[in-house]
Amino acid sequence: MDQEKVIICKNLTKRFGDFTAVNEISFDITKGEIFGFLGANGAGKTTAMRILCGLSFPTSGEATVAGYDVYKQQEQIKKNIGYMSQKFSLYENLTILENIEFFGGVYGLERKEIKRRTEKLIDTLGLQKEAKKMVGELPLGWKQKLAFSVAIFHQPKIVFLDEPTGGVDPVTRRQFWDMIYEAAASGITIFVTTHYMDEAEYCNRISVMVDGKVEALDSPRNLKEKHQVTTMDEVFYLLARGAKRSDN
After folding, report:
1. What is the tens place of the pLDDT at every residue in 169-182?
2. Domain tally for the chain?
3. Domain named ABC transporter: which ranges (predicted)?
């Protein structure tokens, strides 16, 4: 991996009234890294991701994404990232081609470049015969693979994936992660949230959020060795239990 830092967080905090959703989190992410952002529902993952995507302002702390400040340069951040959610981010009443061309325009690509990249993408995915089919007619696994391809269509520096494989079968999940590896190898940084602990094993490093705080940050292998366990499920359980005890 290149050591260029594409995301830098220092004591990043987000409060809603008296409630602290994100509590002084700090980490750096390098170019081409696959960074897993893990935590139970309500741990603060989505709130932190919204800040890093330029969709919400932090209460305090510092952060830059692709070299741009989260307070002052949100629009520049949006131009340099891709985003994909579990809820599927394409238009189901448009064809595959129409979706790709639409988002190419949204990303500011020239028509000639959109055409060139569209043809390459359709060929890579093997969707030549389905190109004019409505996206809503595709199986979920294909929808997710297409959504990921569109999220990196403009070759962003970073792509944020929010529970991207939710609901798909294990074989499709494995194929989806092959696509993630390929994107990372091309230099795109992957920031991914997932509740599948086996997927955490695929990341270069993971951060475990518990009640708004980063309770652990390391490679899956190092975390398992540190806690003397064999799975990330066990690591997650021990961290969550330890945080609860410290609160009490």
Report:
1. 888 888 999 999 99
2. 1
3. 7-236
